Amino acid sequence: MAFRWRRTRITLGGLALGALAACSAGGGIPDGPAASGRAAPADGRRTSFTVVATGDVIPYPSIIRQARQDAGGDGYDFRRILDGVRPTVEKADLAICHAETPYGPPEGPFTGYPLFISPPQLADSLRATGYDSCSTASNHTLDGGTKGLERTLDALDAAGVAHAGSARTRAEAGRPALLQAGGAQVAHLSYTYGTNGIPLPEGRPWAVNLLDPGRVIADARAARRAGAEVVLVSLHWGTEWQEAPDEQQLRVARKLTAARTGGLPDIDLLIGTHNHVPQPYEKVNGIWVVYGLGDQVASFVPEKYRGNDGSMARFTFEPDGRRWKVSGAEFLVGHSDVGPPFRVVTASPGTGDPEVRERVREAVLSRGAATDGLREGR
User: Fold this and answer.
1) Yes or no: is domain 19-376 CATH 3.60.21.10?
2) Of 128, 154, 194, 322, most Cβ neighbours within 10 A?
3) Which residue has the higher pLDDT, 2 or 48?
4) Per residue in 199-210, pLDDT tens?
5) Exposure string (b/e) for 242-279, b if CB count within 10 Å is 16 or more?
6) Distance CA 230, CA 181 (A)
7) DSSP-based three-state secondary structure for 85
């Protein structure tokens, strides 16, 4: 696998900035080394950069069987499954996925719903597709217990993919990892509404970031103090199979986007997952909110066909005085083609299934995002 060092790289494990860890460290996130990756031009200029975010990666057993077949029966290879979105992902300066499920040992066993355990080889395929960072806080983060959580982060580390939302140690939970793009330092944070009733590991309340607006704001401010110039927040939230954002999503979005320090926003972008179906994009308090991207890698039966649809968000950031602003907002249509063979594809204008494209467009634009400048990309 050839890594493309043209883009964003990371320092220091994941980006889970737990408020508990921050408090225990004296009210702030400890400083770490400067971020590595795509450096700013030698003359100090800052340049615009793009962020692409995609939805839930949920390898159901049928998808795992496809990855086994694509690997020739030896191991698991998800690269061909993801090849249809690779051109979009790898062109981004920063690409973010949502790793919904924990990983098992290399040879399994692997399981599906309700307790997912996925092949760790998925991490290499995510990196080969072009992903730089993945959110790992979800309702399934603890499906494999502490060992599953640790295996997941170990595999992402080995593949060179940053991660936010879960942690192996208290220090990791409270230590920022900063990405670089366009000369900016970018923090990626991740939170989940819950863990399906599975309690947090004893003595490890920091293992998974639970969604609390006050905590998210505190962590975003701590990331700023640690050097982040752009803060991206992934939120695993909402009501499954519901296209409209629920009241909690609307309330939390208003609170997070309203947070300011010195008159400047604490958070630059909210990225939602969990709902299985595409949800609207909307500008709230001047900040873009993607309520739900829908699934990127999922395989549902025909009566749940909407769960195989998703959107891909692409935002362009450009320098604006002391800070950065979103100068372009786009969405692309994605779809899991159950095949056989199972493949994840895009459905841009003039290509793909027009019915899929229309369903996703209708959901994404349903709260008037077009009037705020959201456009369909290619």
Assistant:
1) yes
2) 128
3) 48
4) 999 999 999 999
5) ebbbeeebbebbeebbbbeeeeebbbbbbbbbbbbbbb
6) 10
7) coil
